[in-house]
Amino acid sequence: MGALVIPLNARRIAEIVGGELLGLDPQQDGPVVEHVTTDSREAGEATLFVAKPGEVTDGHRFVAAAFAAGSPLALVEREVAADDGSVHPSVRVPDVVEAMGTLASWVVRQMRQDNGLKVVAVTGSVGKTTTKDLLRAIFSEMGPTVAPQGSYNGEVGVPLTVFRTDATTEYLVVEMGATHIGNISYLCRMVSPDVGTVLCVGSAHAGEFGGVENIAIAKGEMVESLSADGVAILNDDDDRVRRMHTRTQAPVVFFGTGETSTLPEVPAARVWADRISTDDDGHPSLDLHFPDGTVHPVISGLIGEHHVSNILAAASAAFMAGVPSETIAGVLQGLGPGSRWRMERTERPDGVTILNDAYNANPQSMAGALQTLARMGGPQDSPRHRRTWAVLGEMYELGDSSVEEHNRLGSLVVRYNISRLLAVGPLARPTYVTALLEGSWGEEAAWVEDLEAAEAFLAENLRAGDIVLFKSSNSAGLKTLGDRVAAAGQGGRA
């Protein structure tokens, strides 16, 4: 649930969103609201209930419940009557989601006008949530900061994030996701970022977009939206992102590994890292170089060298938003994940280490997670070697490349010398088959149809010292399997 910066009456809300008052005296201002929610269970006094239609249900069915809980006003697309036939006090609009965006845009404008709110936006195929969490931590050192809960990064999540600001908020971090061209343009029009960051272009949602190049078009909408007074933060290590410098009128800052820009002819500041390494627990260390010439060594609490790019992106955005380099480095020192199921590490009492990275997955993040798992296992001839398990579920929204990408995971498992593979679910079966064909593993690779079978298999086969990675798309459910296996404690075989 979000809070409006300024309490608004029904008439004023109708004016802002271009709506029509229902069930109210047109000569009166109507009830005042201070909060906004799309969940009737969060409704209460002074709460505007947004009756958002959904894929499974329709918020209009819960208008009565919201009013019963104390809501004085609803945002609706059609008239909703109470049991006595009276119309629930409402603002009617053609599209409630679009109206939420309009109201959010008004809030941002008010915040900029009243207290100089700075908006920093992040997009990319991989790493959005981690980078957002890093930025939240950095900006919180400077002043009151609002950032999305979880992965609130779409046409509903972004307004709900905006509604969590209040009169004291100085920094608003916005995560932006997309499933179609135009999504990010819409979100940028809503919040008008001062700093826009593009992390990478990968194959997640390639099926919906019609190919990776269309994903690049969509992600680049971030920097196209910036004014000449904004700043575009671009990943110099990603060719498709690097080329976005031609799509913005804003000054460009590149981030990447190594001192030299890939495009030296482009006038751009640079945030870069060298002396990159990972320790036995997978934590990356680096020297962080800023445009002001300062250098700061950082040992991250994140797990996996692939997070160096996210660290650089957050450092770049924060620096260009006015945060001193020493503050940035100080916050990043030892900072771990801010959201669940992002390389979340659990040490079981029986000596099994669980890495639950199953909040989301695509080919790029899968590869990074497997590489980290292999490094944590150590060389096979080393005294510190530990047996590694890749428990890999299904990746969704890959379109025609789904079988190919799942096949590639099987090859990576073999290439990285992962000790054991457990593929889970029908779409993941090609991962198992490819590993068998390439590695001639025999019993080292297995496939099961569902989570229950996977849990039973692991309970039977895990032993002390094993490191177990769980990785899949969110809806495949491996994050909950990882939680159950982590909680089992003594469930493995020693």
Describe this structure in words.
With 494 residues, the protein is of the alpha/beta class. It folds into 3 domains: 2-94, 3-Layer(aba) Sandwich (Udp-n-acetylmuramoylalanyl-d-glutamate--2,6- Diaminopimelate Ligase, Chain: A, domain 1); 99-332, UDP-N-acetylmuramoyl-L-alanine:D-glutamate ligase, CATH 3.40.1190; 344-488, Protein-Tyrosine Phosphatase, Chain A (Alpha-Beta Complex). 34% of the residues lie in helices and 21% in strands. It is built from 16 helices and 21 strands. The strands form 3 sheets. It has a 9-stranded mixed β-sheet, with helices on both faces. It has a 6-stranded mixed β-sheet with strand order 1-3-4-5-6-2. Strand 4 (47-50), helix 2 and strand 5 (73-76) form a beta-alpha-beta unit. It is globular and about 80 Å long.
Write the layout of secondary structure elements.
Layout: E1 2-9, H1 10-17, E2 20-22, E3 32-37, E4 47-50, H2 63-68, E5 73-76, E6 90-92, H3 96-115, E7 118-123, H4 128-140, E8 145-146, H5 157-162, E9 171-175, H6 183-191, E10 195-198, H7 206-209, H8 212-224, E11 231-235, H9 239-242, E12 252-257, E13 269-278, E14 284-289, E15 295-299, H10 307-320, H11 325-332, E16 344-347, E17 353-356, H12 363-377, E18 388-392, H13 402-415, E19 420-424, H14 429-439, E20 445-448, H15 451-461, E21 467-471, H16 478-488
Parallel strand pairs: 3-4, 4-5, 5-6, 7-9, 7-10, 8-9, 10-11, 11-12, 12-13, 17-21, 18-19, 18-21, 19-20
Antiparallel strand pairs: 1-3, 2-6, 13-14, 14-15, 16-17
Helix pairs in contact: 3-6, 4-10, 6-8, 10-11, 12-13, 13-14, 15-16
